[in-house]
Specification:
Low-confidence stretches of chain A: none
Helix content of chain A: over 70%
Number of strands of chain B: 22
Radius of gyration of chain B: 22 Å
Largest sheet of chain B: 8 strands, mixed
Number of helices of chain B: 15
Order of helices and strands of chain A: HHHHHHHHHHH
Mean pLDDT of chain A: 94
Largest sheet of chain A: none
Shape of chain B: globular
Helix content of chain B: 25-40%
Distance between the termini of chain A: 22 Å
Structural class of chain A: mainly alpha
Mean pLDDT of chain B: 93
Oligomer: heterodimer
Strand content of chain A: under 5%
Distance between the termini of chain B: 17 Å
Structural class of chain B: alpha+beta
Number of strands of chain A: 0
Number of domains of chain A: 1
Chain lengths: 222, 438
C-alpha cells in the first residue's frame, strides 16, 4: 500500500484512539460496577470526575443504562465504539476486512449486552473483540507505518486515560516509552521540544500528571 | 445443498460480521442495512454458461464499438441504423466526450448486463449497465463465507470458483493504466455501495479515495501523501456518476468530483473506468437497437435476445402499445433502480388515460416491453420454507485486452411474492450464482 495521506493518517490515528478508549473505559467501568455492588453505590461519579465527563446520570441505575449503551450520549462507551467504526469503515483497504470485522462484532455484542440478563459477562466479549482487533493489526496489516499510526493513537489515548485515572508512575512511564517508539516510526510530524520536555519530566522522580497530559495534547502536529 | 440451507443463518451472520451492507436514505437519514442473502444458489450449467458467455461478450464488444463510433465518426447514425433523435437527445450523451478517445479505445471496462430467464428456459437481456454497475462484491464474499460454512457442498459439486473477480478487475485497470497507481474513486462513506468500493479496493490493491487527496496538475492526476509527495495516477475506477465527476466540465456544483480530471483524461494522461459518456449506450431507448448494433459492427446475429420491446417513437409501435397496453410494462428511459416502471394492468382507468396522454406527448421518453414470465427461483422464507420468487441475474463482463465474463454474477430476487422488482434499494435480496464446470 504505502501511501498515507493526511486524511488517512487521521483516520488511522483516531481508530487507535477510539478502540483504546473503548478498551480502557470498559475495563474501568467493570471495576466501577464491582465497587458499586457493595462498597460505594455512588462510585460512578468518581469515574466521571476522573475521566473528565459531566455526571449527567443522577443515579447508579441510570449510569449503568447510559454510560455503556446510550448512543445519544457522546461520552458513552458505545459512542466511542461507533466512532472507532466510523474511522475503520473508511480504512477497509488499509486494515482489511478481517481486522474490521472485530469492530463490527464489538458493536453487535455491546448491543446484545444491553438486552442481556448478565450484561457484565457480555461486555467482556467486547473487550475480547478489541483485543482481537489489535491482534489483527499486528498480524494482518503488512505496512509498518499503518500499524505504527494505529498504535500511536492507541498509546496516546491510553496515556491520556491513565494520567486521568491516576495510574502508577510505572504504568505511565511504560506506556510513554512504548508510545514514543510508535511516534518515531509513524512518520507523523511531532514537536521535538514537547517530546524533550515530557522526557525530562518523566526522568525525574516526581512529575505532575496534569502537566504531562497537557503536553501530550500538543505533541503531534496536525 | 442441504448443508447450505441449514447454514443459511450462519452465512447471514458472517455477512453481518464482515459488514456486507448497503446504505439507504430514509426520511433524509442515512442507514446501513444488511443485504439479505438467500443461501439457495442460482445454478447455471456449463454449456448454458458457455452460451451466455458468447452472447455477453458479443453484446459488450458491440456496445464498445458503438460508443467509439458515437463519440467518433458516427457511422451508425449516418447509415441510419439508429435515428439521431435517440443519440443526441439521450441524457447520457455527453457533448464534451465527443472526439475523445479513451486509452486503448475501451469505453465500457466493467459492464453489468441484467438478464432474466423465462419459464421456457430462454434468457433475455433486460438492460445494459455501462456506467457504474455495482454488485459483484456481494456474491464474491458470500462464496468465500459459504465455502467456510458448508465446505462439503463445494467438494461434492463442480462449482467454478468466482473469487477471481478482483484479479479480473485489476487486470482491466492495469490494461489501460497510463503509468501510475490505480485508484478507486468513491463518493464516500454515505454512498449506497460504499462497502463494495472499499472491499474492491482492498482486494485489488487499488487506493480508495474520495478525491480529497487528488490534484490535477499540468493535465496529470496525482495522489498526495502525508508529506506532500505526489504519486502519479494512471487509472481511476470511478464509482461516481458522470455529472459529478468534474465540476469544471460537468455539474459545476459537484463537491465530490475532481476539478480538471476530464482534461487529464481527454489528453490521454489517465484512464477513467468506465469512460464518461457511456450513458448513451445503456439508455433504455438505445437498448432496442443493440441487436442492430451487433449486426452493424460485428456482422453477426445477436446471440442473446432482448425482451420484446416497442418504441412508441415509431407510429407502428405506438399503435401496438396502445392496443396492448394492459399486457405491457412501460419504462421511463430516464429512470433506473426499478423506478419509473409501470405495469399496464396495474393502473386504474383514470391513471391509464393520464399515462397514455403522457406517452403520446413524450413518445421518446418511454419504451414498452412484453412482460416476461420469469422463471422463479426458490428462496427460503422467514420460516425456512422454500417459496418461489422473481429473480434476475446481473452478469459482469470485463473488457481488458480481451472481453471476459465473470463466471458468476449477482442474482437478485424480490422478497415480495407479487413483485417483479428485485432491486436492493426496494427490499430485494441476493443469491450466489454458481457456474458448474461440468
Amino acid at each position: 500500500m504505502g501511501i498515507i495521506t493526511v486524511d488517512k493518517s487521521d483516520h488511522l490515528f483516531w481508530l487507535g484512539r477510539y478502540t483504546e478508549r473503548v478498551h480502557t473505559t470498559l475495563k474501568y467501568y467493570l471495576k466501577t460496577e464491582d465497587v458499586m455492588l457493595d462498597s460505594d453505590p455512588e462510585y460512578y461519579s468518581v469515574l466521571c470526575q476522573k475521566i473528565g465527563i459531566i455526571d449527567v446520570y443522577g443515579s447508579r441505575e441510570n449510569f449503568k443504562k447510559r454510560y455503556p449503551f446510550d448512543e445519544t450520549d457522546e461520552n458513552s462507551i458505545i459512542s466511542s465504539l461507533n466512532k472507532a467504526y466510523d474511522n475503520a469503515i473508511v480504512m477497509r483497504d488499509y486494515i482489511g476486512t478481517e481486522t474490521m470485522a472485530y469492530i463490527q462484532l464489538a458493536i453487535d455484542d455491546i448491543k446484545k449486552a444491553e438486552k442481556s440478563n448478565s450484561p457484565i459477562v457480555d461486555l467482556m466479549l467486547v473487550i475480547d473483540h478489541i483485543l482481537a482487533f489489535w491482534g489483527c493489526v499486528n498480524d494482518i496489516i503488512d505496512d509498518e507505518q499503518i500499524r505504527n499510526i494505529i498504535k500511536l493513537g492507541k498509546g496516546v489515548e491510553r496515556l491520556d486515560l491513565y494520567l486521568s485515572l491516576g495510574s502508577s508512575d510505572y504504568e505511565i512511564r511504560r506506556e510513554y516509552s512504548r508510545t514514543k517508539g510508535f511516534l518515531k516510526k509513524s512518520g507523523l510530524r511531532y514537536d521535538e521540544s514537547v517530546l524533550y520536555t515530557i522526557d525530562s519530566m518523566l526522568d525525574g522522580s516526581d512529575f505532575n500528571y496534569g502537566n504531562v497530559k497537557n503536553l501530550l495534547r500538543n505533541l503531534i502536529q496536525g | 445443498m442441504d448443508s447450505l440451507i441449514k447454514n443459511s443463518e450462519t452465512i447471514n451472520r458472517l455477512l453481518a460480521r464482515y459488514g456486507v451492507k448497503f446504505g439507504i436514505y430514509k426520511n433524509g437519514e442515512f442507514k446501513e442495512q444488511l443485504f439479505p442473502f438467500d443461501s439457495i444458489p442460482r445454478i447455471i450449467k456449463s454449456d448454458e454458461f458457455a452460451y451466455l458467455e458468447r452472447g455477453l461478450r458479443q453484446r459488450v464488444d458491440a456496445l464498445n464499438c458503438f460508443l467509439a463510433d458515437i463519440y467518433g465518426k458516427k457511422h451508425i447514425v449516418k447509415d441510419m441504423v439508429i435515428p439521431e433523435e435517440f443519440i443526441f437527445s439521450a441524457k447520457g450523451f455527453l457533448a464534451p466526450c465527443d472526439g475523445v478517445c479513451p486509452p486503448k479505445n475501451i469505453y465500457s471496462h466493467i459492464s453489468g448486463i441484467d438478464l432474466v430467464q423465462s419459464k421456457d428456459d430462454s434468457w433475455y437481456i433486460l438492460e445494459d449497465n455501462l456506467r457504474v454497475p455495482s454488485g459483484a462484491s456481494y456474491p464474491m464474499i458470500a462464496r468465500e463465507l459459504q465455502r467456510r460454512g458448508a465446505p462439503d457442498v463445494f467438494s461434492n459439486n463442480h462449482v467454478v470458483d468466482n473469487r477471481n473477480y478482483a484479479d479480473l478487475l485489476k487486470e482491466v485497470m492495469d490494461n489501460v493504466n497510463t503509468g501510475g497507481i490505480n485508484v478507486i474513486l468513491s463518493p464516500g462513506r454515505y454512498n449506497a455501495a460504499f462497502f463494495e468500493h472499499s472491499y474492491l479496493a482492498e482486494k485489488t490493491g487499488a487506493v480508495l479515495t474520495t478525491g480529497k487527496d487528488i490534484v490535477c496538475e499540468n493535465d496529470n492526476l496525482y495522489y498526495i501523501d502525508y508529506n506532500g509527495k505526489k504519486q502519479r495516477i494512471g487509472a481511476v475506477y470511478r464509482r461516481i456518476s458522470d455529472e459529478y465527476l468534474d465540476p469544471m466540465t460537468f455539474y459545476e456544483q459537484s463537491v465530490i468530483g475532481i476539478p480538471h480530471i476530464f482534461e487529464a483524461y481527454r489528453k490521454g494522461n489517465v484512464a477513467l473506468l468506465n469512460a464518461p459518456g457511456n450513458g448513451v449506450a445503456d439508455d433504455k431507448g438505445i437498448y432496442y437497437f443493440v441487436p442492430k448494433m451487433i449486426r452493424y459492427y460485428l456482422g453477426e446475429d445477436a446471440i442473446l435476445m432482448n425482451a420484446p420491446t416497442y418504441l412508441p417513437f415509431y407510429d407502428e409501435d405506438m399503435e401496438y402499445v396502445l392496443d396492448n397496453f394492459d399486457n405491457l410494462v412501460i419504462k421511463d428511459v430516464a429512470e433506473a433502480g426499478g423506478y419509473g416502471v409501470v405495469f399496464g394492468n396495474s393502473l386504474t382507468q383514470e391513471k391509464k388515460a393520464e399515462f397514455i396522454e403522457l406517452l403520446k406527448a413524450q413518445p421518446r421518453r418511454f419504451i414498452a416491453q412484453e412482460v416476461i414470465d420469469f422463471y422463479d427461483l426458490d428462496i427460503l422464507d422467514e420460516n425456512g420454507q422454500r417459496v418461489p420468487r422473481k429473480a434476475d441475474l446481473r452478469a459482469f463482463v470485463l473488457t481488458g485486452s480481451t472481453t471476459k465474463v465473470w463466471p458468476s454474477g449477482l442474482t437478485r430476487f424480490s422478497r415480495n411474492p407479487d413483485s417483479f422488482i428485485v432491486n436492493s434499494s426496494q427490499g430485494g435480496g441476493f443469491k450466489d450464482t454458481w457456474v458448474l464446470s461440468r
